[in-house]
Amino acid sequence: MIAVDGAAGLVVVDPDAETAMRLRAAISAAKEDRAELERFKAVKPVTRDGAPVIVAANIGSVNDLDFATQAGAMGIGLMRTEFLFMDRTELPDEDEQYQIYRTVLERFPDDDVIIRTVDIGGDKPCRSIDLPKEDNPFLGLRGIRLCLAKPEIFRPQLRALLRAACHGRLKVMLPMIATVSEILETRVLIEVCEHELESEGKAFERFELGIMVETPAAVFSADALAKEADFFSLGTNDLTQYVMAADRTNPMVVSLSQASNPAVIEAVRLVCAAAARANIPVGVCGEAAADPALSEIFVKAGVRELSVSAASIRRVKRQVCSFEGECL
Ligand code: PEP
Ligand code: MG
Predict the structure, then answer these.
(1) Which atom of ligand 1 is nearest to the CA of 233?
(2) How far is CA 164 from the centre of its chain?
(3) Do both 99 and 148 map to the same domain?
(4) Tens-place pLDDT, residues 175-213
C-alpha cells in the first residue's frame, strides 16, 4: 500500500497501522471540509461596512476557465498571457490572441477580467524570442521592459486586447512596472494601435489600464504611479523576492522569501494607502492572496480583490467571511 499526502508533499510506502489510521482520518476530515466549502461557491463576501471583496481566479489559459467557473470565481484577477508565448517556436499572432482573450471575456460577461500583458523573462523564459543571455534575468529585460524594447511583440498583443475589449469587461495590467514613464510609453503605444484599428475599420473598445506592483520602485513611487494607473494589483510573489532580495526559485532562501515578512507587509500597506489617496482599487494576485493569515491583513489594509488559483477560491471566500463576518 502507498499513501500519498498531497497537502504535506509526503509519500508513505507500506504505512504502518497507526499511520494508515491517521491518514484515513485526514481523508474523512478533508471530505467533510470540501462538502462544507461547497456552499461558498455562490457566496459574495463583503466587508463589515458593505464593500464587496472580489475573490477572482488566476488563470494561464482557456483550459483553466472551467475550473474557475466551477469554483465560483467572481471574475479573472490575473490572466498570465506568457503561457501563450512559451513552449512554442512561433509567437501567437494578433488574431490567435484576440480569439483567446475573447473566449475568456465571454465566459465572464458580468465580471471584470484582468488580462496581464506578456511577462517574459526571469522565471519565465521564452525560446521563440531571441534574447541575449543575462547574468541576472530577474533584474534584466523582463515584463514591461521587454515589451517596450520589442514593440513587434507588444503591439499585436495590445491590438488583440483592444479588439477583444468589445466582448466583455476587460481591464489590462502591466507587469514589472518600476517607473511612471513605462505606463506613459504604453499609453502612447495603445493610442497608436487605436488609430491603426480605426483606419482599418476594425471594431475596438478602450480598456482600463492598471499595473502590477511588484518592485520596490513601484512601492516607493506608488503615489506618482497611481496618477497614471487605473488600478493596482500587488504581485506578492515578485514583491517578496525583490523586497527580501531572495530568489523566489531558490529553495535555499525559502525562509526569507515569505510574504508574511514585516518588510513585505509594510510595502503592501504603503501601496494600499497610496491607492486610497488616489481613489483607485487595489488587489492582490500573488500566492499570498490565498494565505489565510495574510488575506485578513490585506483586506484590512484596503485590498478589495483577492485573485487566487481556482482550487483556493471557496476557501478564500470562507476566510474573508469569517473575519469580515458578512456574506451575501
Ligand atoms: C507575482 O509576482 O506575484 C505575480 C502574480 O506574478 P508572477 O507570479 O506571474 O510573476
Ligand atoms: Mg510577478
Answers:
(1) 5
(2) 19
(3) yes
(4) 999 999 999 999 999 999 999 999 999 999 999 999 999
